[in-house]
Design brief:
Structural class: alpha+beta
CATH architecture of the largest domain: 3-Layer(aba) Sandwich
Bound molecules: benzoic acid
Shape: globular
Number of helices: 14
CATH topology of the largest domain: Rossmann fold
Strand content: 25-35%
Mean pLDDT: 96
Length: about 575
């Protein structure tokens, strides 16, 4: 294998700005199918910032591709101002147009990249640009309100927004100071935030982040648009998936912050993509991975998924190369023996090929919530059972936003060294009075849960607005309570993310939470547990329970909510699990 690397290439886009690009290409000079990766993290990063699920550049060189890695507008050596999402559609299309004009490009272009490097792919593809033949969006999203900035239930993904903004601002400040410009004091201040991001996230009001906003004013826009309004409609790439005509290999992780959306991208494209190739060529691969580098090993302190669980063990590079070979080189046989869906089934700790997602034999099964006494804490009397409850009851807890339930692992970014994403033991939060726990008896037979999980709860509150959270947990025989997936629903967005409606204090509402997706076999000796509460902080911002503008509230504004969960024949609160019985 012999290749050439051209650094400092300047790609002109329609307004005359030059975007810094590094080109890797075969030394032979022969025209090659070309891959484009764009992101705001510097062109030295060739596999994407969010994890190492993107193929190694040397594997792409060995396979004979040319690769262009580009700084997004305003990032590192590219001209202009970096405002997330805003310019990526046009800049991506103009770069594809430039690529096909190069003598080393054979006219066929694919895109790849993780996280921000995936947002840009969906934006480029949504223009229907002719030369684009395939894409590999990895741990990413095609709808920026739903993921990563807010969530399907309308709560702000605070940990993501703040840690990412801090990281981007810090990278930029480092770049400026090392080039002899910038302000070293600002760099120091950002480095301090990065060392303790939870400290910054705990400051109320959320909107008082002058330091971060000074470096990335876009943060203010995000906080000023808590509803899924016109601002988000404009930013999001996929208003109409039929505009996308290329197949995508969607790659995600069960503990990645984007996983709900990764799966949604796959299903919406499968149903409504703009060509037969886009619909039938969609692929989905999900491993036991979290977002940050390291989360892709499948090895976590509280849970170890074995060697097969790592990115290397998954043979992901082989899958990616075959996919690219099929769509960029037209090799019809390249995907032979592979399946459209490949998932890591936790519990069994094995990879499994599937033909569809959700799995065709899914039995959506209700597990009802009941309790013979208070369900507060894991020591309480909460029961989860497929039998319908016979008597009516309510469980009560006080949700105090000044004392929120702390996030322990799960689908967070976890950029700070002291934070951990993924399958973390939840026992410390299950000991809290404001966490209701509903648990099955010890299982005698394995129970497989693979697919979308949802929770319907009948709830009332003393407040005009509050949040409800749900968490699915696998309780091991040794007592470990390992988080699988979770969700949150903000009361005011129970009917619509675009048109908030406050609650009537005391009125009972049935609210459905999107609890994301998972694939896990609960083994004999284990128990299935559901936690219900009203905060998961700082994964999500805390609801001050006032019905006011949440991002503007100080701790003094916040009030305690008395929240009730109703269960029984008239109020069938239930967890709906996608059961696979093979
Ligand atoms: C990333 O590129 O890794 C990223 C982008 C947005 C939010 C979180 C992470």
């Amino acid at each position: 294998m012999s290749f050439i690397v051209d650094t400092g290439v300047q790609v002109p886009v329609r307004d005359g700005s030059l975007l810094a690009t590094t080109v890797w290409r075969p030394a032979s000079g022969a025209p090659a199918p070309t891959l484009l990766m764009r992101h705001p993290y510097g062109t030295d990063i060739t596999s994407g910032y969010g994890g190492t699920q993107s193929p190694d550049i040397l594997a792409l060189m060995a396979a004979g591709y040319a690769v262009a890695v580009q700084d997004c507008r305003g990032a590192f050596h590219s001209e202009g101002v970096f405002t997330p999402h805003v310019d990526d559609r046009n800049d991506g299309v103009d770069t594809v147009a430039w690529l096909v004009e190069q003598e080393w490009c054979d006219g066929r272009v694919g895109t790849y990249g993780a996280s921000y490097g995936g947002f840009v792919q969906w934006l480029t593809a949504s223009t229907g640009v002719e030369a684009l033949k395939a894409m590999v969006p990895t741990v990413t999203s095609d709808d920026f309100y739903l993921s990563p900035w807010y969530s399907p239930g309308g709560a702000l993904s605070l940990e993501t927004v703040f840690s990412w903004t801090t990281m981007v601002a810090l990278m930029r400040a480092q770049f400026e100071v090392s080039g002899g410009g910038g302000d070293p004091k600002e760099l120091m201040a950002l480095a301090e935030v990065m060392a303790d991001p939870r400290g910054a996230m705990s400051v109320a009001p959320t909107s008082s982040q002058e330091l971060l906003e000074r470096h990335l004013p876009w943060l203010g826009d995000v906080l000023r648009h808590p509803s899924r309004d016109e601002y988000w409609q404009r930013l999001g790439p996929v208003r109409d998936v039929s505009s996308i005509t290329v197949p995508a290999l969607n790659i995600g992780g069960w503990y990645d912050l984007f996983v709900t959306q990764t799966v949604r991208s796959y299903t919406t494209m499968r149903e409504g993509g703009g060509s037969v190739e886009a619909r039938e060529g969609q692929r989905l691969v999900i491993g036991p991975w979290a977002h940050t580098p390291g989360g892709d090993t499948g090895i976590y302190p509280d849970r170890h998924f074995g060697m097969a669980g790592s990115v290397v063990g998954s043979q992901l590079t082989d899958i990616q190369l075959r996919f690219l070979d099929r769509w960029l080189r037209g090799n019809e046989d390249a995907l032979e023996g592979t399946a459209p869906v490949r998932i890591f089934v936790m519990g069994l700790d094995q990879w499994r090929d599937e033909q569809e997602w959700p799995l065709p034999d899914t039995q959506y099964t209700d597990y009802f919530l009941s309790a013979s006494g208070p369900a507060n804490t894991a020591e309480g009397a909460g029961l989860l059972s497929s039998a319908e409850p016979e008597s009516e009851k309510q469980d009560t807890y006080l949700y105090d936003p000044r004392r929120p339930v702390p996030t322990l692992g799960g689908n967070i970014v976890a950029l700070a060294p002291q934070d951990l994403a993924g399958p973390v033991d939840q026992r410390p939060v299950e000991a809290r009075d404001d966490v209701l726990c509903f648990t099955t008896p010890v299982l005698e037979n394995p129970v497989e849960v693979t697919g979308p999980v949802s929770l319907t709860v009948f709830v009332s509150s003393s407040a005009a607005d509050t949040d409800f959270t749900g968490k699915l947990v696998d309780v091991f025989p040794d007592g470990r309570a390992i988080i699988l997936c979770e969700g949150i629903q903000r009361g005011r967005y129970r009917n619509s993310l675009a048109d908030p409606e406050l609650m009537q204090p005391g009125e009972i509402y049935d609210i459905t939470l999107n609890m994301s997706v998972t694939s896990n076999v609960f083994l004999p000796g284990h128990r299935i547990r559901l936690e219900v509460s009203s905060s998961n902080f700082p994964r999500y911002d805390r609801n001050g329970n006032t019905g006011g503008v949440i991002a503007e509230e100080t701790e003094a504004d916040m009030v305690i909510a008395v929240n009730h969960l109703h269960h029984g024949p008239a109020h069938p609160s239930r967890l709906t699990l996608p059961i696979i019985d093979r």
